[in-house]
Design brief:
The structure is a homodimer. By secondary structure, chain A is mainly alpha-helical. Helix content of chain A is about 65%, strand content about 5%. Chain A contains ten helices and three strands. The structure holds a DNA duplex.
DNA sequence: ATTGTACATATTGTAGACATAAATGCCATG
DNA sequence: CATGGCATTTATGTCTACAATATGTACAAT
């Protein structure tokens, strides 16, 4: 070493100047490969609602440590993609029947508004994007279930993107994911998520700048999706039990 | 001990039966006192956008360890209440000007829909709640800034609650918080967040079941809020710099 | 046969220590 | 007087080990 300082000049640092963060790239946890992986697995329905997400197994699968897994899981929990239970672990989120209905209702509100804005703002680039997507969706292999699921989701995301509101886009993304969980929980086996003809119709109406028509078509489309799910009998029994126990628990907390 | 078992009967466990979680209380990270504390501090504008949230300081302030703080911060980051920057720490989120506008636009869409649903579903209990809130808001101490802020936020939350859609309610909560960050970032000093007469008007229209009128009033109210904020000159310069540096960074990454 | 108890195991939660990166202050140099 | 390098300090990121909790199995008791 060149020189040791014999003593500290200013032992107490002068009030650390709080420089606010200006020119930096904020970390985006959504780019985390673990988060991405779990999300795509869920939206492709390879992970079913209620499936256990063990930390060790995930760590081994993704080749990282438990810390990253924990961070990813807690992020997914705050987006209601997984449910965390103390000392038991993380599970793929399973919405209740009421929540499923609320999700569809929220989507009706938000996506009809998105369609409206998309029609208003439609420009050349937007038209091109929309046409490109519609072509891809028209001639994709319908037997490839995973591709179908991805494409149908992308259509709704694309409409939200064309609306030009990033906040609404984030919300739509989240609702899309929760929709696929709702469908996975309550679907009748074998039916597709979206009816195959709805997207071309909506797309064409947007391209034609038929605002009222497009809004109506989107509303109807989401309504149709909702009508494909049914509350499961077994679920109702469980919900009944849950309600009973919750009431008991509440009484216990209140009474003493 | 009573007896030691000489050997294991089944050394390999028979495929752990996956019991799905049914009757359990999922952890709600929102109940965490750290999360609560930071959120209320933000919505009361005691923490300003850009303020640094050091882990050690928070741990000391809340009397807990860094682990809990980290969890809370990462949760808040995924709700866009704080921004995390690698190796620098967490800061109270500061929305961009575009984001602020998008937030208000999203609120116009969602809260007008909420008002509409609230009018449809209004029952005795709802009327009572609404009246009770309006009275509290009418005769609160206008000099108590924190109480005012809480009350005005509660009105919007109450309307979302009356709409009877929990998903929409969560979204509204999140947008409320982000609104207060947007206002804190771009407000003209000294002006209140909400105009004082708007809430009684909207409440009266809901009580009168005047759906169209209530929707229009809510729309106008949010528009008015939005018109109180202005892009800051300094911010624009910074944004310009940010854009430049981001471009440079992207070029560097692309070029090698 | 079914229920209750105790131990074994697996998994999650937590704490502390260590590694690493950014920010600050000091000092030399132009 | 301003600027740039160097060392120190502070703060964050990560790992490892241990503790706490729940689950599963075997066995005893009714």
């Amino acid at each position: 070493m060149k020189r040791t300082r014999p003593f500290k000049r200013k032992p107490k640092r002068s009030e650390p100047k709080h420089r606010e963060p200006e020119v930096v790239d904020p970390r985006n946890i959504d780019d985390d490969p673990v988060v991405q992986g779990i999300l795509t697995a869920i939206s492709q329905k390879r992970l079913k609602p209620g499936a256990k997400l063990g930390e060790d197994k995930l760590a081994a699968a993704f080749g990282t440590t438990r810390i990253h897994i924990r961070q990813a899981l807690s992020h997914l929990a705050s987006r209601k993609a997984v449910m965390q239970i103390p000392n038991r672990g993380a599970f793929v989120y399973r919405p209740s029947w009421e929540e499923a209905q609320d999700i569809f209702a929220a989507r009706r509100i938000i996506e009809t508004a998105a369609v409206s804005a998309a029609v208003d703002r439609l420009d050349k680039a937007g038209k091109a994007e929309l046409k490109a997507h519609m072509e891809r969706e028209a001639r994709h292999d319908r037997n490839d279930r995973w591709a179908s699921l991805s494409l149908t989701a992308e259509f709704h995301i694309l409409v939200a993107k064309l609306a030009g509101n990033r906040v609404l886009l984030e919300i739509s993304r989240e609702l899309m994911l929760r929709t696929s969980l709702a469908i996975a929980t309550f679907e009748q086996p074998g039916e597709p998520d979206c009816s195959p003809d709805a997207h071309p119709d909506i797309g064409a109406l947007i391209l034609a700048r038929n605002k009222a028509g497009a809004i109506h078509a989107m509303h109807h489309h989401i309504e149709e999706m909702e009508q494909r799910i049914r509350p499961k009998k077994g679920e109702d029994e469980v919900d009944e039990l849950t309600a009973i126990f919750q009431e008991i628990g509440a009484r216990a907390r209140a009474g003493g």
